[in-house]
Amino acid sequence: MVAILAGVIVLIGIVYFGLGSVVDTSERANRTAIRSMAHAVEEYHKKFGRYPTNEEGLDVLVTTEFLQPNPTDRWGRKYNYRYPSTRKEVPFEVWTFGADGVPGGTDENKDLGNWDR
Description:
44% of the residues lie in helices and 8% in strands. It has helices at 2-48, 59-63; strands at 80-82, 93-96, 112-113. The protein starts with a helix and ends with a strand. The model is unreliable at 2-22 (pLDDT under 50).
């Protein structure tokens, strides 16, 4: 009986901590992609003297070969772009709404953007 209980506790620990590392990995991958896209936006700005408009969005970075085609977050959704930014920390915004795809949230559902440094 004690061995079964110990096994269940070990299994719970593996699942709990294993899922935590999956969330961390997804967050790291999204942060890396966001940094890459923000860098591409800055390179576009250097070359053309302006930031992409909201209408052009990140798609213009693909057509001008600053980004690979179809950049999507870890949940298969396109990243969001806004210029000018509504945040004082950055001139433009690149972000994902997280796993749930809606604004706000915590853990894997939290929004991640280029304003998070």
